[in-house]
Amino acid sequence: MAKDVTCEVNSCKFWGPQNRCNASSIHVAGHQNQPRQNREVDCKTFQPKI
Ligand code: SF4
After folding, report:
1. E-assigned strand segments in the chain
2. Which of 8, 13, 19, 26 could form a disulfide with 45 if both were Cys (CB 3.0 to 4.6 A apart)?
3. Does pLDDT of 40 surpass 70?
């Protein structure tokens, strides 16, 4: 599990209670070089819940 990662993307299959990310590792990339707002950050580990 990625340590101490909290995330509000509850549509992701790695998302758990208390906003915990249960993925073993995550890859987060910004859409821009210097993201300034949450919506400009994109977790590449995201997978939709089935
Ligand atoms: S994999 Fe990314 S989007 Fe999914 S819960 Fe973890 S941090 Fe959030």
Report:
1. 15-16, 20-21, 28-30, 41-43
2. 26
3. no
